[in-house]
Amino acid sequence: MAKWKPMKRHPNIYEYPVKNGKKYGIRFTYYDAEHKRREYKKSGFRDWQEAEVALHKFQNDIDNGFVNALNNRRTTVEAYYEVIRKRSVDIGKWRPATIAQKDMYFAKHLKPVFGNMALTDISRQQYQHFIDSKVKDGYAKTTISTINSVMQIIMNAAERNDVISKNKLKDISIEGAKEPKPAKAGTTRLSIIHEDSKGIFEQILVYPHLLISAGSAS
């Protein structure tokens, strides 16, 4: 392979010898939406001007999000959930209880259906069918809304970071699901949902200090 020599005053443009003279190429390093280091490399240009035009076009495509969308078109739902999860944990955005809740909803409901699917392959019609199936299975509207909120976190972050061009699942319809029963007076916000046919609880504790206070008072 011919040795590439960087051109002075033309960053990321290289020249290399060929049989009948020399040609030019591009080597340009950048980071994609998932902060992975990538290199754009292209050769065969007749002169450095042609190579520089191609480089500027590529850089412009990056600025407009076209390159990230192309690089990440096969990013799966599970892979991107892990990206979001790691960042949210690293910056302290998700507390342990939040992590446990989202992990449970993702693993139990979303991963079996969408985990291995590319973000770009999920259609609105397909996702609506998934939500409707949860209604038919008898899940409460609050449960389905929480499942949907996890998926929306994934898709909104993917759109915001140019992994996908658009979140096609926004404002999905949740109709016909069971409404939550009114809370009795004096009860704390402790919800234990027995909706899993396999006997797994979905337990969410909110304001645990109220429970402690109530126990002390008795």
From TrEMBL:
A GO MF annotation of the entry reads: DNA binding
Q: In the UniProt record, does the keyword Ubl conjugation occur?
A: no
An example of a Pfam family matching this protein is Phage_int_SAM_3
Q: Which residues lie in coiled coils?
A: none
Q: What are the BP-aspect GO terms?
A: DNA integration
Keyword field contains DNA-binding: yes
Provide this UniProt record's keywords sorted from A to Z. DNA-binding
| SUPFAM superfamilies with a match to the protein in the record | DNA breaking-rejoining enzymes
Q: Indicate what this protein is called per its UniProt record.
A: Integrase SAM-like N-terminal domain-containing protein
> Which organism is this protein's natural source?
Lentilactobacillus kisonensis F0435
